[in-house]
Amino acid sequence: MSKKASWVSRFSFYLLAVGSACGLGNIWRFPYVIGENGGGAFLLLYIFLAFTVGLSILVAELILGRSGEFSLLKITKLVSLQAKKPFYWFGRLSILINVVILAYYSVISGWVLHYLTQFIVGIVNENRIAYISSINMEALKNSGSLQFSLASVHLLICGFVVAKGVIERFEKIFAQALPILAVLFIVLIIRSFSLDSTSDVMRFLFYPDFSKLNLSSLGRALGHVFFTLSLGMGIMVTYGTYFKNDEHLPSVGFRVTTIDTIVSIMALLMVFPIAFLSDSNHYFTDPGILFESLPRLFVKIQYGEFFGFLFFLCLWLAAVNASIGLLETLIANFSDKFHKISRNQSTFMTITGVLLLMIFPAFSGTLFSKFKWFNQSFMENLDSLLINYLLPISGLGIIVIFFHLLNETERKEKFIDATGKNSQAMYRHWIWILKWFSPVLIGLAILLQFVNLFR
Ligand code: PHE
Prior knowledge:
binds phenylalanine, mainly alpha, 19 helices, Amino acid/polyamine transporter I, single chain, globular
């Protein structure tokens, strides 16, 4: 292979892993989770967990992928048979989480589509400025069927990309969108920073006030680490199979975690200065913070309607990319389980199942608005159950499977690079974090959240 070709393919593998990690989790979810949990201290906790628990499990997933099997369901079955223990439940749990997250993620991607169309209307509208300033979430909040329809459009497009085998073509488009998104990000951050609120925002984000942490902070930070790095569902296991043998997977994991964290922090710098200008505090903790803030920022920029359109287009492509990862993993598992079914049939069945499930998050604010537990809406409870409880438990499953599947020699061989310079020492740290530190923290996080719920 020519030098250029191997560089290009190397880049595209990175794109897959980074693309699955960076998405709505960083840009939409992270700002409101930080707002909800009081800023700086939580941010520090999050970064610490991302580079310990998150990174170590990410590397374990990538290495599991290299050990030959494609789907987590298959791996858990294999280990179950070997160990004669019902570890296949971990595989089943990961599939369940995968389906529900895809349903939930599609609804939020539908919100992005709504904004995208609004900005298109903004471009052709006579009074552009007035139109953009009027863009908000009201229409979405009041209509479950609008949310459901948009989410369906999103999911069907993803299904089309997967079923027609045009993923590679999509990846190319996505690769071109990334630099545009990066430039837009920087322009928006600069604009955001020229607002009056900057010093308050810097204090909020970078001056940790530890009294803001409570019993559920650990679980929330950990849950978001799993979500944003796409851990616990075997997605990174699948991507691990793509990397060539000479690629040092721990370094891949480190780079993916670093890029993901930088993107998340950039999202904070973009959203908070404008959110701080609002008089309502409730605003920071609202899942709509990104969607409410950005139009107000675009109004302040020349050709804002055009930039807004580009931004939401790129964001939607990122959401399609992450959704494709979820869908692919589901379909791969489905086809593994039912050999006789064709790929198109399994895509069709998976999509039908997810469409049905989507009814719940899409109508949570309207039809299901009466269903409230622990003072939270249906959607908030679903988010919390999935991300703060089930994902970390599934991560625990990955650890168990990892230690059962690979013995010490295999683990070492896959972790330590050819030069072996620093990786000997790193290997010991990694195993310690994976074996002791992560399980203890995951257990503690779940316990403390429970205690907080019933206090
Ligand atoms: N990591 C993705 C994001 O941050 C979300 C995701 C989670 C994608 C799980 C795939 C699997 O947007």
